Amino acid sequence: MVRTCDYPGCSNKDVADSPQSFHRFPVTDVALRKLWVLALGIHVDTKVEKIKKLRVCSAHFSDDDFLSTCPGQRQMKKRILKKSAVPAPQVNKTVAYQLIYEA
User: Fold this and answer.
1) Prediction pTM value
2) Secondary structure of residue 100 in the 3-state scheme
3) Which long-range contacts (CB under 8 A, 24 or more apart) does 15-22 make?
4) Residue partners of 59: CB distance under 8 A and separation at least 6
5) In the chain, where are the structural domains located?
6) How far is CA 46 from the centre of its chain?
7) pLDDT (tens digit, 9 = 90+) per residue, 33-75?
């Protein structure tokens, strides 16, 4: 079974040689989990059992959200999120367009 990103509107798939890395929701840190849930527009009262199954691909994080290698250290095989990383909030593109271009 091929896993897909659970970010609304994203169709990235977790397949071999994918340029994206896929990340689990933080389930033990309640405050951080709520931020992730809000960023994806998921209902705040969604059961943890369901949230554990969700994944978000690296396309929804900035480069600053990932750990970097130190000089002289080998390149990491996969990208690892910092503990404080939160996906970029889902933006209503119509509203964003109106705010930017029709102001």
Assistant:
1) 0.77
2) helix
3) 20/57, 20/58, 20/59, 21/57, 21/58, 21/78, 21/79, 22/55, 22/56, 22/57, 22/58
4) 5, 7, 10, 12, 20
5) 3-101
6) 17
7) 999 999 999 988 999 999 999 999 999 999 889 987 655 566 6
